[in-house]
């Protein structure tokens, strides 16, 4: 079965000067323009293509890889707006449409938004939606405390960053636990801190406890070795300098270098540390 908005491996039925006619199975014939073919193809050969509908509504293939396929999230920029909606750049010649009723908030020309691509049931055209809540799981979250999860930064709230948890639920990473810059659309790992009774999820970006300190210690050692055995961040250094270098708090940094000192690996001074 071939699905619009996804990458498929199709077989060539016929070649012409204009391009290749591919067997799209249930979609019928899929046309691959000659400008998309950079090597010799013959009838019976296979080719990997992304399938979408052209301006006339015909199934068309491209060897280019879009920024997202149907069912995926991506940060896309608005290129133009008309009476139909916002047209967004997703890496192909034909822009993808975000209809007005799928915009939350209302989009502005030139701005980028986190969207999910979906297949419109009526038109069978690929569209984008920033109203991604409708695509999330309706099941109650059952994550374990400190379970590692995949995150996508979705926006900001008064309390912290709103994140998609495993692309299935909404969570929050509180500002006072973040020690590095985050941006909408960024993908990163996190850890479940708590699942509240109302289903809301609190998320951490760093491992808690000694696991976090041990990981930081390894990063500090690597930095020391790369810097010739000296790092100008010590026991009395500015917290902002530590945050900028290691994306962590001064308290965590002091725990990590304290552990390295106890292991006999480093010497600690007021504004620097040194390998022994």
Short descriptors:
five-stranded antiparallel beta sheet; 3 helices; single chain; mainly beta; about 280 residues; about 15% helix; NA-bd_OB-fold
Plain-language structure description:
The protein is mainly beta and 276 residues long. It is built from 3 helices and 18 strands. The strands form 4 sheets. A 5-stranded antiparallel beta sheet has the order 3-2-1-4-5, with no helix packed on it. Strands 8-7-6-9-10 form a 5-stranded antiparallel beta sheet, with no helix packed on it. A hairpin with a 5-residue loop joins β2 and β3 (29-33). α1 (209-226) crosses α3. It starts with 6 loop residues before the first strand and ends with a strand. Belongs to the CvfB family. Residues 218-275 form the Conserved virulence factor B-like winged helix domain. InterPro entries: CvfB_fam (IPR014464), CvfB_S1_st (IPR039566), CvfB_WH (IPR040764), NA-bd_OB-fold (IPR012340), WH-like_DNA-bd_sf (IPR036388). Residues 4-64 form the Conserved virulence factor B first S1 domain. Pfam families: S1_2, WHD_CvfB.
Task: Briefly say what this structure is.
With 276 residues, the protein is mainly β. The protein has 3 helices and 18 strands.
Helix and strand topology:
Layout (H helix, E strand, L loop, with lengths): L6 E9 L3 E5 L5 E5 L12 E8 L5 E4 L10 E9 L3 E5 L6 E4 L12 E8 L6 E4 L18 E9 L3 E6 L3 E6 L12 E9 L5 E4 L4 H18 L3 E2 L7 H8 L3 H13 L3 E3 L4 E3 L1
Parallel strand pairs: 13-15
Antiparallel strand pairs: 1-2, 1-4, 2-3, 4-5, 6-7, 6-9, 7-8, 9-10, 11-12, 11-14, 12-13, 14-15, 16-18, 17-18
